[in-house]
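Morning, I've got a small favour to ask if you have a moment. It would help a lot if you went through both lines with me. I owe you a coffee for this, so here goes:
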Amino acid sequence: MNVLSLGEYAELIGHFMVLSLIAIGGAITTAPEMHRYLVLERGWMSDAQFTGSIALAQAAPGPNILFVAVLGWTAAGPWGALVTMLGIMLPSTTLALAAARWGRARRDTLAVRAFTAGMAPLTVGLLFSTGWVLTEPTRTSAVALVLVVGSAALLLRSTVSPMWLIAAGAASGALGWV
């Protein structure tokens, strides 16, 4: 855990406020940029800490956004968790409330329908880039590749619960296969 200066906390909240405004599809879609900033640029955590923080938060019950608090905690303790959560939540929440009210009043217009349709491919692309960053530590593992491809195939072609696939991945990791 790092002790940050007041200026670094201001920079951290500012960075996460910007990420909040481009997090189309949820905060997890900005994980590649969070990784670049927290790990590569600032050096406040390692690759393993970054991936572990996201894995821990995603495995825990509760909202998906909690991974941001875990990243903030890992980078800078309790103040880091508070600053990152405020940064990621305030702008997007304010904008979402305003846009929802505006869009509801104009939902039948061509512009609103086109905007809504255009967001889907953007969200999918951001989610793929997040998956790419999160798989970096295990990309050379044949077992990991089999798990990813097998999981995707099962989810697309069956009604198996994703929880079984998550359990299989967790067991593979616990056994040291991945």
Q: What stands out?
A: The first helix runs from residue 6 to 22.
